[in-house]
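Researcher: Let's do a round of design. I'm pasting the structure tokens now; please hold your answer until I've finished.
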């Protein structure tokens, strides 16, 4: 619960939360309502009306004999849902683990703080339904220092992140898993993820790859994946379209609007080249863009965008059709890579 709630909140909801209203309304039933039945029912009703359930969702029944907020089904090969005998059984069929590398950071006016966590975990779960591998989520936050001016973002140092994932991998190695597929859900984690992969390969008996990199040659682009074009990055139409597929009820598209973008002058000058697909311009643009306020580059999200979207395209142009096409292409590519790896190096009890 302490994780699920903030992960479903948009940045303005976090503002409201930090002012106290939602915190009081949500926490009261958890910590203080056992005193009187009447108060319990009042704060229970308030909690249901504010606990990050979109207005369109049907409210859970207050008379439910079990947790009225629990709506998840047990997912095959998803570690948090499994018993230890199920993990032992899976180990007789595979030594592979997908580990999503996530983030908890603002996603503008319309996307939940947990976007990168949810999208990576949901992608991994869907992959694990098509090819037998374990999915082991480890952390919700990642490295997001440049989003810190928006409430709700949680950032961890790269050193912390890599150490936590590395120790988690050591646990999984202890149980007999040997092959690790790190699935990065957030651009700011890219270098950290590759470092974790290298540490596993250099320092343990495990073998690791970054799944996005490994699956790239299998990625088939389809016409449905095409977007409106233009400057369209963080919390823009590619990512929001993905969310419309993976976590539809958490996207509040009616709250989305085009961001007012204020780039440092020299970056604004190179933007047309970036949008035109000039690789060098993009490399230089991204090296400088989206960096913590403390660097003095004036490229933290808040310094460049009023909504938190980093792009000029209106996120309202996001579509489920495009999100589904992007997700299906990514999942198919992941599965193709995993199947190819299983063929190249079949599971052997002697390894
Ligand atoms: Zn994101």
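Researcher: That's everything. Go ahead.
Model: Designed sequence:
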């Amino acid at each position: 619960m302490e994780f699920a709630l903030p992960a479903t909140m948009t940045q303005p909801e976090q503002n409201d939360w930090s002012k106290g209203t939602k915190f009081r309304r949500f926490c009261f039933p958890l910590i203080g309502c056992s005193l009187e039945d009447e108060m319990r029912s009042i704060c229970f009703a308030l909690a249901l009306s504010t606990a990050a359930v979109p207005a369109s969702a049907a409210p859970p029944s207050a008379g439910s004999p079990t947790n009225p907020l629990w709506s998840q089904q047990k997912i095959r090969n998803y570690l948090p849902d499994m018993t230890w005998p199920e993990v032992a059984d899976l180990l007789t069929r595979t030594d592979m683990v997908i580990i999503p590398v996530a983030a908890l950071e603002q996603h503008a006016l319309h996307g939940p703080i947990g976007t990168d966590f949810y999208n990576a975990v949901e992608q991994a779960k869907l992959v694990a339904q098509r090819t037998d591998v374990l999915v082991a989520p480890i952390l919700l936050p990642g490295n997001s220092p440049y989003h810190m001016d928006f409430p709700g973002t949680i950032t961890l140092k790269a050193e912390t992140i890599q150490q936590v994932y590395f120790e988690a991998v050591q646990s999984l190695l202890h149980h007999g898993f040997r092959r690790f597929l790190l699935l990065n859900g957030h651009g700011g984690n890219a270098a950290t993820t590759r470092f974790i992969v290298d540490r596993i390969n250099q320092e343990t008996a495990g073998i690791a790859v970054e799944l996005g990199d490994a699956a790239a040659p299998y990625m088939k682009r389809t016409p449905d994946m095409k977007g409106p074009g233009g400057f369209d990055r963080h919390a823009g139409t590619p990512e929001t379209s993905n969310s419309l597929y993976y976590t539809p009820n958490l996207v509040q598209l009616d709250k989305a609007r085009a961001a007012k973008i204020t780039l440092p002058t020299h970056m604004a000058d190179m933007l047309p080249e970036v949008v035109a697909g000039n690789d060098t311009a993009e490399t230089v643009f991204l090296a400088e863009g989206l960096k913590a306020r403390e660097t003095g580059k004036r490229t933290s999200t808040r310094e460049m965008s009023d909504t938190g979207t980093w792009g000029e395209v209106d996120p309202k142009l996001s579509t489920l059709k495009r999100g589904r096409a992007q997700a299906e292409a990514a999942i198919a590519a992941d599965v193709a890579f995993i199947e190819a790896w299983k063929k190249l190096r079949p599971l052997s009890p002697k390894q």
